[in-house]
Amino acid sequence: METRRLANFIAIVDCGSLTRAAERMHVAQPALSQQLAGLEATYGKQLVLRSRQGITVTPAGRALYRNAQTMLRQLKQMESDVKSAGDYISGHVSVGLPVSCASIMTIPLLQSVRERFPQILLQISENLSGLLGELILNNRLDMALLYGTHGSEGLTRKPLLLERLCLVCQPALAPAGADRETVSVSAMADVPLVLPSHSNGLRALVDAAFSRHGLKPRIVAEIDSLPSLRASAERGLAATILPRSAAIGTDIGALCIRDVVEPKIQRTIVLCQNSAPPASEPVEAITAAMIETVDELVETGRWPGVRRV
Q1: pLDDT at 194 exceeding the cut of 90
Q2: Pick from 142, 103, 104: nearest CA to 122
């Protein structure tokens, strides 16, 4: 089967439309439709459902999409490996970072890769942890830092860090029960909070901690944006709960930042990869660089509020 047909099918799924896929791949739409029909005839399965709104991928189509991603990525890496054999490590490696980790990790990781593996093209994607996991499963990312040790099958998970969450607010909003270092969950019962929505893993941790005391957080707004959560705390509009590292870039001296205790609110940061395809040499090199960068950031105090697992 021609790899071009697989690449075109991937474009159809990504674009959600034959018309947009044809434009992206510079192929006439009738030819693209014929290629799709040929794939469906080859496998004896309908791969997409067509409608006026676009296309919907069937289970068979999703299976082909995942495997086509893997195959094309491996073919591309094979070409790079053969050309550079015995010379240097080269290739393309894609890494995903959650928003709160990206501000800490991106530049140190890039610097390490540029110094040690200048022939590797590093792609860094910043997104929500849950979405990054899906991108790994779909072979859109080689690896990512994710939150939590449990999740979808098909991912290998190496725990790296334990990260504590903090109350972040202006002094006027700090609860009376807060000392200079910590604040209990029960003391925050009446504190107005701006938090991410329920789809965010951090929100689930906060809700669970309050629930253990028979309480509910006093939510005044839900914002799925780290910069906006920080800005809300800086301006005194409400308090928020974030990892200590997320306060980087704020006027820390003007804010109260207290570790949440009784109970502690913390989460595990893990390094995840797809367990199906074998890791290429460039992926193994970047995996090692990721772990070494994390260790250095923790040891030098540049990643506050975490400890190695």
Answers
A1: yes
A2: 142
